[in-house]
Each structure stands twice: as C-alpha cells, then as structure tokens.
Design brief:
The chain has 234 residues and is an all-alpha fold. It has two domains: 3-99, no CATH class; 107-221, no CATH class. Helix content is 75%, strand content 0%. It contains eleven helices and no strands. It has helices at residues 3-22, 30-61, 69-80, 84-88, 90-99, 107-127, 130-133, 136-165, 170-191, 200-206, 210-221.
C-alpha cells in the first residue's frame, strides 16, 4: 500500500468509526464511555468527523509531494489535534471496529472513492510545479490547477461530512457522500473552467489524469448502485 492509499484508508476509517458510534453500533459501551465519560462518548462522532476533515484539508494544503512520508505524518498530526477524547479511548474504539457487526460497512468503498479524488490531487500537483510556471501558457494552467485544487479540497470535505452525517445505511451514506462531492465538482465546472484565463483551464482538463479522472468519477458515481472498481494506483 503506497502513502496515498494509506492516507485515504486513515480518512475512511475515521469516517467509519464516527458512523459506527453515531448509528448506535456501540450503545451503552462501558469501555468507551469510561474513557472520557458518557458525554465524551457522545462527542466522539463529531470529533472524529472534524478530525477527518482536518486530515483532508492538511492533505491538500501541505507543501511538497503527496507521496512523502513527512506529508503523511503532518496529516495525521492535524487529525489527532481534533480528536483528544477519541485518542484517549483508542483501545476501546479499536475493539469496537474489530468486533461490532457492520462497523466497517462502507469502509472499502469510501477508501477507494477518496483514493480516486486523491489521485486527481496528485495530478494537479504536477501542474503546479515551479518548472511549469516558467512557461507563460503552463503558468496559466498552473493557476487553473491551484483554483481547482481548492475546489477539490471542498469536494473531499463534502464527501467526509455527508458520508458521516447520513442517516441511512452504508450504501445510502456512500451515495450521499458522492452526491455532495459531485455537486462541488459540478459547481467548479460551471464557474471556474470556461477558459477565462486563456487556454490554461482548457488544457488543465486535457492534461494526463485530469480529464479522464473527472469523466470516470461522474460516470461511475451517477450510476445507480455504482460500486468501487479496482483501478491502477497513481
């Protein structure tokens, strides 16, 4: 498993744990409640959701490469700062996730969905490189990449929030997360990428990995009952 896959697994596990607690997978768990009191256990779903959001934001804001071990550590620290009660109860939560039936439902699909979005982030990062910025046309594309990078971050945050907050089962949660993500990306397509900055925005979508990734996401996620499909790693 490469670092990007590891990072997306981290985020998906935070989401799954938050949902397991929020949906009552561990009602009256003395082990979890005892770690920080009942009030602390009730705060944990929101805390874990905020930790997952912090992870994603750090993932796309960190300077440097998205395949660097130091980058992964930075993302994890950002998440840990948002989840003190959950860290205090980590042993109990680990037990919950390995023993409670259905606790990991939807985890594999969410991990794969997030990996696909992360793959786009890697492709965008290449378009923002200083080497490309030296060229006028490439500089225009770099500006478009940075702008879309911000939108992509919002889309990934929308995925996390909608996936955790969904009241339905894991299938409904994944569907809600995908809808929220596509709404953000569709908004980007309508407002940000009509070629106002010369041809940089158009070239962005034609760049390797960007156009195909967006097209495949839209096609797969708008298909009813679409499941995650195995794809090549970036």
């Amino acid at each position: 498993m490469d670092l990007l896959e590891t990072a997306m697994a981290d985020v998906a596990l935070l989401m799954a744990t938050a949902r397991a607690l929020r949906m009552g997978a561990v009602p009256g768990s003395g082990a979890v409640a005892g770690a920080d009191g009942l009030r602390g256990r009730r705060r944990m779903p929101g805390e874990l959701r905020r930790a997952a959001v912090a992870y994603v934001k750090s993932l796309l804001r960190t300077e440097g490469t998205l395949t660097d071990a130091e980058w992964l550590a930075t993302c994890r620290v950002a998440a840990e700062r948002r989840m003190p009660a959950s860290l205090a109860a980590r042993s109990a939560l680990r037990s919950v996730m390995t023993t409670q039936p259905g606790a990991l439902d939807g985890f594999a699909v969410a991990r794969h969905d997030l990996w696909r979005l992360g793959h786009l982030a890697v492709a965008l990062q290449g378009l923002e490189s200083p080497q490309l910025a030296k060229d006028r046309d490439s500089g225009s594309m770099g500006k478009s990449a940075r702008r879309f990078g911000k939108r992509l971050r919002k889309a990934m945050v929308a995925y996390v929030r909608a996936g955790v907050r969904s009241e339905g089962n894991s299938t409904a949660a994944v569907a809600a997360a995908r809808r929220a993500t596509l709404e953000e990306l569709d908004s980007a397509g309508r407002r940000d990428f009509r070629g106002e900055d010369g041809d940089g925005t158009i070239r962005l979508f034609r760049a390797d990995g960007i156009e195909r990734g967006l097209r495949d996401l839209a096609a797969d996620w708008r298909t009813p009952n679409a499941r995650a499909r195995p794809q090549e790693s970036p």
